[in-house]
Amino acid sequence: MPxxxxxxxxxxxxxxxxxxxxxxxxxxxxxxxxxxxxxARRRRPEMRLLIGHGSGSFGHFAGKKYHxxxxxxxxxxxxxxxxxxxxxxAAARLNRLVIDALLDAGLPAITIQPSATAQCHDGELREMHxxxxxxxxDAGLLPVVHGDVAFDAERGCTIISTEQIFAYLAEYLTPxxxxxxxxxxxxxxxxxxxxxxxxxxxxxxASGQEIWExxxxxxxxxDVTGGMxxxxxxxxxLVMAHPFLIVQILSGEDAGAVGQALLDPTVSMGTRIVR
Length: 275
Known about the structure:
alpha/beta, Carbamate kinase, four-stranded mixed sheet, globular
């Protein structure tokens, strides 16, 4: 019997929603991605898969309006806590659409809501109940987490990204691969949607921090959970802590790409972050 590989897959908020329009899902993309994931599971039944997704035009609009990531604003406590609640509700609305698409594709998807147990300190995720996710994986279920709000001992509240959740869970679930699927095919030296002169970076060595930091320069895609530079920094730190982990940042826009990446660890697409 093949070894049971654990893989984390993030469906980026920019991939599954239109981030320029408030609470606008890309339902056709969701349906396609769910089909690709279902096909990969059928062909590799031994693979243990954790899905995560961003909040896109759902949580980010509310989070930006109320500055939820920065915490409770002095003198505006009631408004700040309302923003916390609304941001969490918006993230949950998108999660329901993701779960429904996965269920419709025949996948036993269940939500593991991060805000139910997450505890942060000054924006850093310090605690989250991971045992339920492990039980779900052992049972052959498809657990799904997502970018969410969280209580914070220093700020009162904050927002945690899917990458932060993945980094925390990696300590306990030991994935061999983390796939981050967005709208661009990996990491570039600038914004490839605005400047055709930017260069694609096929491999980033986490140990060469000065090199990849200088390559990224003024990165793109800033939102309430940070842009590409922050994402690469988080994942590079994770790879340094787990030497056998490989992170792959790729585009989910092309039909079949996510399914292929799930099935073939050696496939050459996007950007790989290695030790």
